Amino acid sequence: MDVILVAAMEINISDRNIYRETRVKEDIKNLSLNPMFSAYINRYRENLGIACLAAFLRENNYSVQIINSNIESRSNREIIDQIMLAQPLLVGFSIIYELQLFNTLSIIYELRNRGYEGHISIGGPCASCMYDYLLKTNLRIDSVIRGEGEYTILNLVKSIEEKKNWKSIEGLAYIDHNNIIYNRKKKCIEDLSSLPFAARDSLYFLKNKGFNTRTASIYSSRGCKGNCIYCTAPQSSCLENVKWRCRSGESLFYEVEYLVKEFGVEYLYFCDVNFIGYGDDAKVRLETFSKKIIENNIKISFHAEIRADSIEHDMLMLLKKAGLKDVLLGIESGSQRLLNLWKKGISVQKNKDAINEVKKMGFLLEPAMIMVSPKTNRKDLIETIDFIIETKIFEDNIPMNMFNKMVLFRGSKAEENLKLEGFIPEVNESIISQRIQNQCEIKALCKELISKEYSIEDKCVDAVWEGVILQINKLTWLIEDFFPEYVSERYLKYDKDDKNNKEEFFSLVHSIKGWRRNLDSLIYELLLCMKKNLLSNNSDMSNIKSQFENIVFLYEKKYFEQTPELCDGINRLIDIG
User: Could you tell me the superkingdom of the organism this chain comes from (predicted)?
Assistant: First the structure.
């Protein structure tokens, strides 16, 4: 084996009080719990990064194994045993976001303790932004691949195989005599269509296990021309000579055709930062792709992330005919002051127009929102609440997904600005460079590396946010964990020949469906309660908390009066906050 590429299992070690981040369940465990869940899963965590690298290395005659723990439910011990057995020339780890950091560094620590002497490299957006700190650790990480990785990893493997000096390879960062060296790229891959299709080892794994492979991740472009300060995409794009590039419509169509024929894929999750893109080439690729999908009668639906200022009616109509179903719009805020501060480059009115257009055309809207940030004041949050109510985006999809606090990602401009202002501390380099001796010290290292939690400057906004997020976490837990598992458990005990049992089961399902169907009314009440407390400048945390709790309690009582054991079970088990 020449190369093993690893996507470690996600785990949250931050202090952020967001349930969607603390709840991480492997895809195969989700499917094993109830195979019917596959009909509701719109994205398996394939990790397109290592899938693309694996395909490129294989095209160049290198043997590559992908270990994707989120798909395969592989423990760290199993991953380490596999690497030690194979003894590859290179082990590459992907850190897309902070949730993968702890397990990645834990595996590297144990690998070195077990005596693995091969080359260890890390890549991915998160690793690219904190590359200097990763190299300064005592974990003996040999290199970090920054940005686009195909040619960098190919040249690295070749150099290792031929026992040549690899330290001049473009795109590679390493440490030399306590100095961090980064070899900036002189060129990037401008023709993405020349690359092989992503390796689909994860889908084959699921397929061979007998699971439905109805969904796949895919990309049609790379990069971003935006300057949003809360995002790491601008920093990642700056690592390449061309900030944004796209594949041809033909290349995209042929990969989709392959996925449909080989795996029975029905739903595609496009991972592009901005699916519509920039310029004439961007439009041509989407027109070509859409027309070929329609002409060849390929039956798919797909998700795309679109900037509000790139909405064009005719283009969206064509994409809809081709299968575009879910549209994520980067709305972020109803406050023009914050949009300007965050360098979003868009107006509140433009966001409203885009929402109206997307809704009018019949798409499922997923509004991406940053409800609060370090500098959000009462006026900002009231404007955002009014915006949500006016546009009625609380009625769409899963409304809890709107309740986001800005994350100060390592390497983002927002993080840099707040460090300069003394709002968050500088990295403690003594923790980074200390000698690691156990898992607790790895966790302390990771906590120092990841984005910092913070209190919002406006005390009223902070109190209102902390009060409402407890209930949002509870509602998210009910939808994503409690109800699916509870209904599955009850279904296994369901006796269709027992009339009382049958009535009880369907009464339960009816109650849960009613609760889920009308969540928008509950979110509306929570938004009004937020606004009332903001207008009164209330910062009494216990008082605010009890207000939100009472609203949710009355809502649950309305739908679960006929199933009191369900309501009692929820109240006994819930301990999110």
Answer: Bacteria
Whether the Cβ atoms of residue 476 and residue 400 lie closer than 8 Å to each other:
yes
Q: Is residue 450 in a domain?
A: no
249, 130: one domain: no
Residue 354 · residue 311 · CB < 8 Å: yes
Whether 147 and 234 share a structural domain:
no
8 A C-beta contact, residue 22 and residue 114: no
Shared-domain flag, residues 227 and 370: yes
Measured from the Cβ of residue 569, the count of other Cβ atoms closer than 10 Å reads 14
| pLDDT tens per residue across span 18-63 | 655 555 555 556 665 555 455 555 567 899 999 999 999 999 999 9
pLDDT digits (tens, 9 = 90+) for 177-198: 889 999 999 889 999 999 999 9
Judge whether 159 lies within some domain. Answer: yes
Q: Is the dihedral of CA 340, 343, 345, 349 positive or negative?
A: negative
Between 410 and 286, whose confidence is greater? Answer: 286
Closest CA to 337 of 391, 265, 303, 387: 387
- Burial class of residue 429 (count of CB atoms within 10 Å of its CB; 0-12, 13-18, 19+): exposed
Q: Are residues 15 and 155 in the same domain?
A: yes
CA count, 13 A, side-chain hemisphere, 563: 21
304, β-bridge pairs: 327
Contact in structure between 216 and 268 (CB atoms under 8 Å): yes
Looking at 69-139, which runs of residues are DSSP E strands? 90-94, 119-123
Does a structural domain hold residue 394? yes
Does the pLDDT value for residue 400 go beyond 70?
yes
Q: Residue for token digits 């966001």? A: 351
Half-sphere exposure of 233 (CA within 13 A, CB side): 17
Count how many domains the chain has: 3
Q: Which residues does residue 64 pair with via DSSP β-bridges, in sequence order?
A: 3
Domain that holds residue 168: 3-182
In a domain, 392, yes or no: yes
One domain for residues 226 and 169: no
What is the distance between the alpha carbons of residues 217 and 219, in angstroms, rounded to a whole number? 7
For residues 80 and 143, membership in a common domain is answered with yes
Q: By CB neighbour count within 10 A (0-12 exposed, 13-18 middle, 19+ buried), where does 435 fall?
A: exposed
CATH of the domain at 138: 3.40.50.280
Angle at 104 between CA 90 and CA 243, to 5 degrees: 75
Q: Indicate the length of the chain as a whole number.
A: 577
